[in-house]
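--- STAGE predict ---
source: upstream dedup step, 1 unique chain passed
mode: sequence only
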Amino acid sequence: MQLLLGIDIGTSGTKTALFDERGECFASHTADYPMSQPRNGWAEQNSEDWWNATLAGIRTLLYRSGASANAIAGIGLSGQMHGLVLLDKSGAVLRPAILWCDQRTGAECAEINRLVGEKRIIEITANPPMTGFTASKILWVQHNEPQIYAKAAHILLPKDYIRYKLTGEFATEVSDASGTQLLDVPSRAWSAEVLQKLNIDAALLPRIYESPEITGKISRETSDLTGLRAGTPVVGGAADNAAAAVAAGAVRQGAAFTTIGSSAVIYAVSDAPGVDVLGRIHGLCASVPGKWTLMSCTQGAGLSLKWLRETLNFTESYAEMDELARKIPIGSEKLLFLPYLMGERSPHPDENARGVFLGLSAIHTRAHMVRAVLEGVAFSQRECLDVFRELGTDVSNMAFTGGGAQSTLWREILADLYVCNVFTPPSAAHGAALGAALIAGAGVGVFSSVPEASDAVTQTKTAPTHPDKGRAGAYEPYFELYKSLYGALKPSFAELARL
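--- STAGE serialize ---
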């Protein structure tokens, strides 16, 4: 029996999991680590925390499963998108990684528009300049830490730093590279034009592969550290959502899923590059060769619920919080929440946006606030899905994955707001780690292709949650009010940022 190892370098922790070719999990391990916010709107992590978590995970898996390292046919990597990792010529990390949710680069985004052109940057990268994307972070370091940038010899994304530590190779793949704002997304190659106009040396960037291509092999040093067999192939892998799509069955035109983790994403596969000229949602390369995606991203989704739990000192579990919220009526008795705790990307790309509770009164309890957060995040997803539908991508069945999928109430709210069936795939519990492992299976020949790998684990579907016409109608006036609030508050967000 051949085994496949998936490693997902997330924002709150790294998940390492071992699977067979049917997607059955032999063992998994998650190691957590902190996120640093040195200033309001900033978000950084120590790259070595990811590596230490990966080492701990691999060692634990091999011990816990009792599996032979010789049985592991391939390794796939997944991880948080957009993070900037800078290495010197010796491979040493130069500064903490600047993360996807960091909002410091508004001025750099304006500079990208000026240097490349507002229309041209979207034509090439399928996205307007975003504070979350990597290019603006590179410019920020150029401007604010020139002594560090002068030492930079390599620019990597989070999962690709782990690839370097595992194999010694500097490589990435198209789905993650799509989020750098340096990739020609239709052509699936680094853009010489963007690099030249932003004064970024192409030699700093890693080689690009398709997701299932083999990018390197486990080094002897890593073998000694982990117990993995030296020479075990490591494939390109995929960005977290592109990997989760494989585990959720979203590998063909029109297939879609919603995932709620720290952020929330709606992801749909397309046979051709997709571009929203208004920049409300992203166009990216898929982890399936020859496919692209439309993708939205709400910055503070599960993160909002975690923030509420920690700030109000909930002793209840998330499942118990779910039950508290279930007792509160639709609309949380006139309490709305805008989930902009880390700025926003979709459908309002605005680094100045901030979280809001609207309508707080003495009647409201912690349970009302939980319900308002669940509804506010769901309202954001509906607002994004409306953009997908406007662009001609409709969805009649939506897979629901990520940590948020454990909430039956959240699933019901999404079904009612989407007005479509929402189901949780049996594979959802392992998400991106499973998707990375399946991509590895396609790369080393366990499967003939990424779609075949996905089909092997998604043939069985759980019963869907159907929309309820009455509840759907009850949500609409609250949703309409929710949609009006960003426009009304945008000047205030900007003024608050200036203070």
